[in-house]
Amino acid sequence: MISFKEISPSEFFYQHRELAGFSNPARALYSAIRELVENSLDACDGYGILPDVLIRVTETKPSPSDVKEFEIYVKDNGIGIPSEKLPKALGKVFYGSKFTLKQSRGTFGMGGTMSILYAQITTNKPLRVWSNTGNGETHYFELMIDIENNKPIVLKHKKFSQQNWRGTAIKINLLGDYVRSSQKIQEYFRRLALFTPYANMVFEDPNGEVFAFKRSVDKVPPPPHEVQPHPKGVDLELLRRIVQRSSSKTVLSLLINSFQRVGRKTALEILKIANVDPNKRPSELKMEEMMRIINAMKTYEKFLPPDPSCLSPLGKELIEEGIKKELNPQFVYALSRKPSSYEGYPFIVEAAVASNKTPGIKVLRYANRIPLLYDEKSDVVFKLLNEEIDLKRYKINEDEPIIILTHICSTKVPYKTVGKEFVADIPEVEKEMKLALQKVLREYSLFISKKVKIETQKKK
Amino acid sequence: MISFKEISPSEFFYQHRELAGFSNPARALYSAIRELVENSLDACDGYGILPDVLIRVTETKPSPSDVKEFEIYVKDNGIGIPSEKLPKALGKVFYGSKFTLKQSRGTFGMGGTMSILYAQITTNKPLRVWSNTGNGETHYFELMIDIENNKPIVLKHKKFSQQNWRGTAIKINLLGDYVRSSQKIQEYFRRLALFTPYANMVFEDPNGEVFAFKRSVDKVPPPPHEVQPHPKGVDLELLRRIVQRSSSKTVLSLLINSFQRVGRKTALEILKIANVDPNKRPSELKMEEMMRIINAMKTYEKFLPPDPSCLSPLGKELIEEGIKKELNPQFVYALSRKPSSYEGYPFIVEAAVASNKTPGIKVLRYANRIPLLYDEKSDVVFKLLNEEIDLKRYKINEDEPIIILTHICSTKVPYKTVGKEFVADIPEVEKEMKLALQKVLREYSLFISKKVKIETQKKK
Ligand SMILES: Nc1ncnc2c1ncn2[C@@H]1O[C@H](COP(=O)(O)OP(=O)(O)OP(=O)(O)O)[C@@H](O)[C@H]1O
Ligand SMILES: Nc1ncnc2c1ncn2[C@@H]1O[C@H](COP(=O)(O)OP(=O)(O)OP(=O)(O)O)[C@@H](O)[C@H]1O
Ligand SMILES: [Mg+2]
Ligand SMILES: [Mg+2]
C-alpha cells in the first residue's frame, strides 16, 4: 500500500532548506542576515526612503563551541508592515508584496520566512517583531510558524502608541557559526555599502566589532513603478487570466488595457494576424482564438521594447560614488547600459572597473542591488570572464590589481536557485553583460596605457 | 496601499519554471522527457520490477520553425498509480509518494506535475494518462492543472477492463525544440541505459530514429526499504512531531521506537545526558526537555551509522556490466564504497573508470541513478577533478581517452537546485567522492603502466 501525501511549501523548504541557503549553521547565519537586511532595504529605497539600518548580532550565551545560539536584531526606518498582514508576511512561505512586475530585492515571498523558520527549528524561540507604518501605532508580535500547514502562529500581539517612528524591527534566535561565516558576512556588508551609498548601515558583530557605513549621498534613486506585462512575455495561462478578470467590453480594448506597448493600431494588427474579431466580447473568446492571439504576439516584430520604468538601475554616478567611498581607488569607471529584455522581462546591465590596492582580479557581482557572494563559478559573469573574454587583450594579467563590478537589474533576475546565488546565462543577458564588460575593460586598459606612458616619461 | 498576496506552489513554479529546468523550449523538452522517464523507472525498480519503458516523441504538426509542438508518450510496466490518487499525483505540486526516507529518483513531488504544467501553458492540451495497478482495471484520465490553486482539473475519467497490463502511459503535448536539445536528449538516454543495464528502453525520436537499449542483465538490484530517522538527523521540529504522534507510553520507548540505531541502553544514556526522566509520558515533555534531548543526541558519539537498507547502490558488477554493454571498453573498473552519512542521511558513493575510444576526459555524473548532464562546473565532482585531485599523478593528460563515472545515492541527495542539476560539496560527500575517485584513477594508471610495459616489450 503506497502512501501518498501533500506537503506544504514551508514543509518543502524545511525538508530542503539548503535550496534556500540554510544548509548549515555558518551559511544559515549569513542567509538570515542577508534576507532580513534585504527586506529592510526594499522597505526603504523601494519607497523613496533614505535607509537607516541597524544590524546587531550577539551570542546569546557563551559557549566554547563555534556552533552556538546567536540573536539577530535588524531595525529599519522603512514603510513598516501593516499589522493585519504581518503574521502572514513573515510566517507563511510564498506570501508577500513583491510578486509584481517591479524591481525589488525580494521576489520569492519566502526569504524572511525561511530565516524565522530556521531560527525556530534550531532554538524554539519565536520571532519578535515591532512594526509601525507611520500611523502612530507600533504593533508587537511574537510569532512562530506552523511548518506543516504553512501558517503563522501568533503567540502574542500588543500595540502601543509611538508617534515618532516608522519602520520594522526584527529579532530572531538561531543556531549559527560566526567563526566560519564572519569573513563572508563582513564582505557582504562592505559590498552592500558600496552599492548602497545612500544608506546608513551599522553592523555590530558578535565580537563587539562595529562596522559603520555612513551614507555619502543624500538622494535615493527614483523608485521603480509597477508595469503591465509586455506582450512578448505572454503565455496561454497569463492570457486566460487576463481574459477572465477583464472588464473590457471588447478584445481590442482588452489588449490595449492589459498590456504595455499595445496601442489601438498595434492591437488591430495583432488581431488581424490572429484572425480574431476586435469587437468580440472577451468572455466569448475560444481557447483556439487565444492561442492564435498568443502566436500572433510571438511573431509580431514591431512592439516597442519593454517599459523600463519598472527598473531602478543605480546609474554611473552612484556606482562610481560608492566605489570611491568604499575603496578610494586611483581609477574608476562605471557604465549603465540601455534597457534590454528577455522573454518580455526588461533588464538593465551595469558594470564598472576600478584599480585595486592588492593584486588579484576581484569580481563583485550584484543583482537587483544584492551582492552575490556564493557559487561564483556558476554565474554568467564568471563564464564570460573565463571563457568568452580574453583578458590579455585588455592588458589584464591573472594577478592584476583590478576590481570588476557587474549589476543586473530586472523584474525577473534569472536566478538559478531560490537562494539567489548566481545568474543563469540567458542569451540576451549574456550578450548585454559581455558588451558591458568589454567596454569597462577597454577603459581600464586605456588607463593602464596612459599610466605606463606617464611612468615611462618620468623615467626619461 | 501595498497589496499582499499568497501564491500557490504551482503558481510559484509557473512564474519561476526555470528553477525546475523548464527555462526554454529546448530545455523544457529535455526536462519533460527526463521527469517522465525517471517516474517510470522509479515505478519499476523501486518495486523489484524489470523495467520496459517506451518513449516516443513526435512532431504533432510539421512546421519550418525549430520551436514547435511535440507529443511525448511514455509508457511503462511499473506499479501504476491508484486511480483515486492519480489526479493529484500528476496535477498538484508537492504531492507524491516519495517523501519517505528511502532512495528513489523522485524526491520533490513536482517533476511530473511540472512537465504537465509546461505542456498545458504552451499548447492548452490536457494530459492524457492510462494507468493500471494490476487489478484488471485501466483508468483513463484527461487532466489539466488549476495553476493558481495548485489542484487538478479532471476533464475526463473512464475505466475499462484490461487484464494483462500493469503500468502507466502518459501523453503530453508541449512546445519544444528538438534541434537544440537532441544531442543532450540522446546522450541522456545512452547514459541512462549504461546505468540501468536491467532495463529495456526504446526511444523513438521526432526524426523517426529509434534508439533501442536491450537489457543485458535479468535481475533488478534489491529495492530499498523505508527507514526511520537517524538521531543525528533530528531537529526540534522533527522531535516535536514524533512526540505529538507517538503512542509510546514513555519517553524511553518513544526514542527506541521512533529512531533507528537507538536501543534501550543508548536511549537511557541519551536521557541521562539530557537529564530527562525515562519514564516520563511523552505528552508531558516540555520544550526545554526536548531541546536537551536534541543536544544530547547531537553530542552523543556512540550511535551506529545510519542503516543503509534504505539505499540501493548499483554495485560494482552491474556498473561494469552497464559500461561494457554501452561502451565496450578495453579496460573498466568500478567500485562501491561503504555507506557513509551526512546530517543523519546515509549515502553511498560509487565510481568507475573505463578506457575510451576517443580522446578527451569524459565525466559521467549520476545521482540516485539519474544521469546529470547540466551545470557540470558547479558539481562537487568537477571541483574535485579540477581543483583537488592532480590528474597528472595518475598519468592522465587533458585529452586522455578516459571515462570517469561517479554515482551518489542517498535518501537525500544534496542537490542545489529543484531541477536536480548538480550536487553540492557537502564535506562528508566530498571526502567520500574524493577517496572513490582516487581509487579508480589509481586502477586506471596501473592499467596504463601495464599497457605501456606490454607495448614496450612488443617493440623489443
Ligand atoms: N523590514 C520590512 N519592512 C517592510 N516589509 C517587510 C519587511 N520584511 C518583510 N516585509 C514584507 O514581508 C514580505 C515577505 O518577506 P519575505 O522576505 O519572506 O519575502 P520577499 O521579500 O517578498 O521575497 P524573497 O523571498 O525574495 O525575500 C515582503 O514581501 C514584505 O512585504
Ligand atoms: N509512471 C508512474 N508510475 C507510477 N507512479 C507514478 C508515475 N509517475 C508519477 N507517479 C506518481 O506520481 C507522484 C508525483 O510524481 P512527480 O514526478 O510529480 O513527483 P516525484 O516523482 O514524487 O518527485 P520529483 O519532483 O523529484 O520527480 C510520484 O511520487 C509517484 O507516486
Ligand atoms: Mg525578502
Ligand atoms: Mg518525478
- General shape of chain A: globular
Hetero groups in this structure are: adenosine-5'-triphosphate, magnesium ion
Q: Oligomerization state of this entry?
A: homodimer
Task: Kindly state the percentage of residues in helix of chain A.
Answer: 25-40%
CA(first)-CA(last) distance of chain A = 89 Å
Q: What would you call the structural class of chain A? A: alpha+beta
Beta-strand percentage range of chain A: 15-25%
Please summarize the sheet with the most strands of chain A.
Answer: 8 strands, mixed
Element pattern of chain A in H and E:
EHHEEHEHEEEEHEEHHHHHEEEEEHEH
User: Which chains share the greatest interface?
Assistant: A-B, 54 and 54 residues
Low-pLDDT parts of chain A are: none
Radius of gyration of chain A: 25 Å
Tally of helical segments of chain A: 12
* Strand runs of chain A, count: 16
Major beta sheet, strand line-up of chain A: 7-6-5-8-3-2-9-10
What do the pLDDT scores of chain A average to? 96
Condensed summary:
2 copies of one chain form a homodimer. Chain A has helices at 9-15, 25-45, 86-91, 111-123, 178-195, 236-245, 251-258, 264-274, 287-299, 316-327, 380-388, 427-459; strands spanning 5-6, 52-59, 67-76, 95-96, 127-132, 137-146, 151-161, 167-177, 200-204, 210-213, 332-336, 340-342, 345-355, 362-367, 370-372, 402-410. The first copy, chain A, has 460 residues and is an alpha+beta fold.
SSE topology:
The structure is a homodimer of 460-residue chains.
Chain A: E1 5-6, H1 9-15, H2 25-45, E2 52-59, E3 67-76, H3 86-91, E4 95-96, H4 111-123, E5 127-132, E6 137-146, E7 151-161, E8 167-177, H5 178-195, E9 200-204, E10 210-213, H6 236-245, H7 251-258, H8 264-274, H9 287-299, H10 316-327, E11 332-336, E12 340-342, E13 345-355, E14 362-367, E15 370-372, H11 380-388, E16 402-410, H12 427-459
Parallel strand pairs in A: 2-9, 14-16
Antiparallel strand pairs in A: 2-3, 3-8, 5-6, 5-8, 6-7, 9-10, 11-13, 12-13, 13-16, 14-15
Helix pairs in contact in A: 2-4, 2-5, 5-10, 7-8, 8-9, 11-12
